[in-house]
Design brief:
There is one protein chain. This protein is mainly α. It is built from 14 helices and eight strands. It has a domain of about 30 residues. The strands form three sheets. A three-stranded mixed beta sheet has the order 1-2-8. A three-stranded antiparallel beta sheet has the order 6-3-7. Helix 4 packs across helix 6, helix 6 packs across helix 7 and helix 7 packs across helix 11. The N terminus is likely disordered.
């Protein structure tokens, strides 16, 4: 089924509100695609800065490495480049109940459920956030610099990619390309955690293969520090969640009071202490820089919550990265053939 037929079917199965949303986002995606140019043409364009051309070449190299590594046939993804008018390509809106840390899901026929909605237009994102706030939700808007259309369109290189250093760029490309070889409908949190995990694990092998060991060691040290901070934020978020369940705030004001006290007396002191242990300046300690609320914490958990479980399972199985992927792929095939367990995560870790 081509994308336009799929879109028509999706429209027929959706409510009016969702239809309006899908229409706006489809127009935005089509507009984005229409601005794309073949990489070869972009590389020949004298108006494109040389540093940006080097990024395009690097992405092409990363793409070849990725598909060769997994022994998969290359797709047309990232064969074109889209130059954006802004730093971000789109904006995610995450909404959470005021009394718990849980991203509200929006479900679409055939596509499954998502713990956020994405908007190409910032004004539309803000309007949706205001609507959810009026419904007593807490919201957070996050700029997006890269995303995957999961095969509904042929994804292009976006000029927003050019702001990443080589290490971040490799992780980004490996993450997005992982979605092209493995994706489970309706399980966004697991998909993102899997893509995060496999992308991060591939980095060491990639930089070793390109004889960039010194650069790798510097980046790995920073990654180890960031991982420790991310784990601390996850633990603190779960602690706050337990606090909400214990106190059961009745309105947004009560919930905000709980959040504020927790941030001042627990979150910030613990994060500051950890940063001091890691010799990280408070000015560059990322959890201290962010504005946290239930929605931003819920979004953070979507990408980070299962990473330790995935690492633990690989160590338990004593498999290398390719063997681990083959194991998960096989388990997913078995999962689809059985009917007792409905959640693949439960099936994988049982």
């Amino acid at each position: 089924m081509d994308f336009l037929k799929f879109l028509v079917l999706l429209f027929l199965l959706s409510s009016c509100a969702k239809l309006d949303y899908l229409y706006e986002q489809s127009i935005g995606q089509i507009s984005l695609q229409s601005k794309a140019r073949d990489n070869n043409d972009v590389l020949k364009n004298v108006r494109i800065p040389s540093d940006q051309k080097e990024k395009i070449k690097k992405i092409e190299q990363l793409k070849k490495y990725f598909y060769k590594y997994w022994q998969k046939k290359e797709t047309l993804i990232y064969s074109q480049t889209t130059m954006l008018q802004s730093k971000a390509v789109s904006y995610l809106v995450i909404a959470s109940p005021f009394n718990e840390i849980k991203a509200e899901e929006t479900c679409f026929p055939l596509m499954g459920c998502f713990p956020y909605l994405g908007f190409f237009n910032l004004a539309s994102a803000k309007d949706f956030a205001k609507k959810k706030e009026r419904e007593d939700f807490v919201t957070w808007i996050r700029p997006v610099y890269a995303y995957s259309t999961l095969g509904y369109f042929t994804d292009t290189i976006l000029s927003s990619f050019f702001h990443y250093n080589d290490y971040e760029l490799a992780e980004l490309i490996f993450h997005e390309l992982f979605h092209t070889i493995f994706f489970i409908n309706g399980q966004v949190e697991l998909n993102e955690n899997l893509a995060n995990y496999f992308a991060q694990e591939m980095l060491e092998e990639y930089f070793k293969s390109t004889n960039q060991l010194d650069y790798l060691q510097i980046q790995q040290k920073e990654e180890i520090e960031n991982k420790a901070l991310r784990k601390l934020v996850v633990n603190l978020a779960m602690e706050l969640q337990e606090l909400y369940l214990k106190i059961l705030p009745k309105n947004k004001d009560e919930s905000l009071a709980i959040l504020t006290e927790f941030m001042d007396k627990r979150f910030k002191p613990d994060v500051l202490k950890k940063c001091q242990e890691l010799n990280i300046s408070p000015k560059t300690c990322f959890p201290l820089e962010r504005q946290w609320n239930n929605a931003s914490l819920a979004a953070f958990l979507t990408y980070e919550k299962k990473s330790d479980d995935l690492e633990g399972l690989q160590k338990k199985l004593r498999l290398d990265l390719r063997g681990y992927f083959a194991f998960i792929d096989k388990k997913y095939y078995e999962f689809k053939e059985q009917s007792e367990i409905k959640d693949f995560l439960l099936y994988l870790f049982r």
